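User: Could you check the structure of this?
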Amino acid sequence: MKYQRFLLWFILGLTLISAFIDLPTRPSIDFKFGRFHLFRDLEIKQGIDLAGGTHLVFQADMSKIASQDKDSAIEAVRNNIERRVNLFGLTEPLIQTSKIGEEYRLVVELAGVKDINQAIDLIGQTAQLDFRELAPEATTAATLADYQPTGLTGKDLARSQVEFDQNTGAPEVGLEFSDEGAKKFSEITGRNVGKPVAIFLDEFPITIPLVREQITTGKAVISGEFTLDEAKKMSIQLNAGALPVPIKIIEQRNIGATLGTESIQKSIQAGFVGLLMVVGFMAAYYGRLGVIADFALIIYGLVTLALYKLIPWKIGGYCRFCFNYLWFSHSGFI
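Assistant: Sure, the predicted structure tokens are below.
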């Protein structure tokens, strides 16, 4: 009895919370506890087919990239573009790579873009990688502003790849410099033993390792408590500057929000019609138990929509199809 009562109150509380999250006034969640900070604007993230936006296709110039490095180079460009788009304030961009014959292309879909020209300029820039050291007058309380360029840039870095420590098996990030880069790196590490050297990508630091000894071989590793995914991500970021790939836009299509508005209206109408059909059928065929099942179905819909707003998933045509499929399958129609 106590368990059933607890379950009833739990379902009631979950329903009320879900209904509050689903309100069209879009309440927000802003919770802070120490260093933990959770913020959700609870706005439904709409895909490009609903919110409108821009579809861009870029072609990568691989003429100066070695054949064995082309796949890693295009992946580095894709990740660099995704990072730039996120910094630009656009959420959940769709960025894909494709290969047509010997041509490498990137397909970028930006939902809800307002200043498209600025976005194109931002995406089309070639990544800028450089190594920086602390200024001589810097103290122990140094900030990023105290790091100054060393003259060692992405042009001097041949490639980066994930390696594994021979003793511990821990993942590391390996660096391999060109002949000219090896000389510069030797000088930099020689005068910075025991000091940090920062690596910046597009004016943002991606890692600030501590120099343990002078490195004269032109090969180095960045070690730390990396997971394999973290090491791969850093290697890709470094390759974005080590393997600069110019890109040019070859296709641009603006998708108006009119299509999205019509689609949303039709989906709402179809949802109400489907709900009324399900409720009527269940109540008529199963009686009292059918009415209870109808309430359960409504609660299920409220909770599902709340999850879409909390996580948040981006809703598009495919998501609507999945939602409708789940709705009717749980109703017993599928």
